[in-house]
Amino acid sequence: MKFCSQCGKSVSHRIPDGDNRYRYICDACDTIHYQNPRIIAGCLPIHENKVLLCKRSIDPRARKWTLPAGFLEDSETIAQGALRETSEEANANVEIINLYTIFSLPHISQVYMFFRAQLTDLDFSAGEETLETRLFEEEEIPWDELAFPVITQTLTHYFEDRKNDSFPVRSLEIIIER
Amino acid sequence: MKFCSQCGKSVSHRIPDGDNRYRYICDACDTIHYQNPRIIAGCLPIHENKVLLCKRSIDPRARKWTLPAGFLEDSETIAQGALRETSEEANANVEIINLYTIFSLPHISQVYMFFRAQLTDLDFSAGEETLETRLFEEEEIPWDELAFPVITQTLTHYFEDRKNDSFPVRSLEIIIER
User: Fold this and answer.
1) B18 chain-A contacts, CB cut-off 8 A
2) In chain A, what are the domains?
3) In Å, what is the CA distance from A139 to each residue of A27, A95, A136, A152, A155?
4) Would residue A151 be called left, alpha or beta, if left means φ above 0 and alpha means ψ between -120 and 50 degrees?
């Protein structure tokens, strides 16, 4: 951030009076520009004993497999964002079962939230950011070709929890020192 | 938003090519300025059969009772944000038990997340945004003087769940038409 989005003057980067963190501050109009973590909402789409994965067409991690997910938009509920991304990336129709995994990723200021979701038909296909969509049984999961740790962990928990038919909400953290 | 934070030129508000939502766009440097929901993290601090509430000193809802909570900062885990706010608003020392309630508030593009937390001592007091801190038994809760619906719902679920000594994570939505 170099300029104030309110008045167009240059911003400085310093700790405001009464605060203890660096902020972008406009000394012309006194606006403090706070920056906050963003939420990525997605689904774990399920059909019988299979899960739906998407092969990414875009960076980061192009050609790796992922669950449909993306940035939550203003004015959406978390579930609405997860459904929209599932539709956009996999053209898939699902019904949400329950919130399942929540990840803090402080090194990139992101929070991921995945819902377990039931595919309501098999009419799915690759969206614009996807090369290929496919149902995988547990034994077929390309564990070495998954896009992100949040995907690996969500799938690992799912197949483990499925043995007990119990899927508690899991609040998790992925800590990467930088 | 009126000016581009990257180059300082005026922004326009329109739907970018290939998108379906209005965004602030800089026609000078082509930056698209996305806006996303923010997370408010907080605690439900517990001591024996009591919960700790804070009387707000600031608007909105000054002089109403709330749970300690505030905007999650960049580079924080959700739990770290909840602990920091509990320290800032109530000078309270707690240990987190578990994530408890999650609320989507799409009308204001916010997501609230509260953790159940155990007070580790009774050395709490009002922080800068707080007039008074106090432990309440269930019968003493000032239900008509609570600051926000997320507070009322979190406390209602807590006292109900306490009867069964079972506190499942609750994913909730507060929908207010505008």
Assistant:
1) 128
2) 1-35 (2.20.70.10), 38-173 (3.90.79.10)
3) 59, 25, 8, 14, 12
4) alpha
Using only C-alpha atoms, what is the Rg of chain B?
19
Confidence of residue A177 (pLDDT cuts 50, 70, 90): confident
Q: ipTM greater than 0.90, yes or no?
A: yes
> Could you tell me if A12 lies within 8 Å of chain B, comparing CB atoms?
no
Number of Cβ pairs < 8 A linking chain A and chain B: 123
Q: Output the DSSP codes for A26-68.
A: ETTT--EE----EEEEEEEEEETTEEEEEEE-SSSSTTSEE-S
Phi, psi of A152 (to 5 degrees): -55, -45
pLDDT in tens, chain B (178 residues): 999 999 999 999 999 998 999 999 999 999 999 999 999 999 999 999 999 999 999 999 999 999 999 999 999 999 999 999 999 999 999 999 999 999 999 999 999 999 999 999 999 999 999 999 999 999 999 999 999 999 999 999 999 999 999 999 999 999 998 7
A77 neighbourhood in chain B, CB within 8 Å: 104, 106, 173, 175
Give yes or no for A57 touching B (CB within 8 A).
no
Stated length of chain B? 178
Question: Cα–Cα distance between A52 and B143 in angstroms, integer?
Answer: 45
Which of B133, B173, B166, B130 shows the shortest CA–CA distance to B150? B173
Q: In chain B, which residues have their Cβ closer than 8 Å to the Cβ of A178?
A: none
- Is the Cα torsion angle B84, B85, B89, B94 positive or negative in sign? negative
